[in-house]
Amino acid sequence: MAEIRHFRDKQPENEKITINLGFVDLGRIDLLVQEGFYSNRSDFIRTAIRKQLDAHGEAVDRSIERHTMELGLRDFGRAELEQLRAAGEILHIKVVGLARIASDVTPDLALATIGSITVLGSLQASADIKKALADRIQ
């Protein structure tokens, strides 16, 4: 029998945001798309954001270092949290990017091992984990 894959279980690799633009700015973007400078509005906006992030790259790096944050994707699994609990240690999660708490982590284990969560980007965890840690998520 063939293996069945559920595509809805796959987590998105990016986050959707909504912005408000004035009609003139939107028209100027559409003109650049029409003229072939960008493939679509989203391409223009992503390019503009990346240019701004590059322009402020040193300030972002200094801030990440100053706040002792991790940059990128950070997964927290059951085994890691159980090791922390056994050692009597509390984890303070600080991530710029995506932090994921594995589906096999129980709310009790999370409460016993996670002291605080600061994520600039996105936190992916079960609804039960988010509810249990609600007062620790900043």
From TrEMBL:
UniProt superkingdom: Bacteria
GO process annotations (BP): regulation of DNA-templated transcription
One Pfam family here: RHH_8
The protein's name: Arc/MetJ-type ribon-helix-helix transcriptional regulator
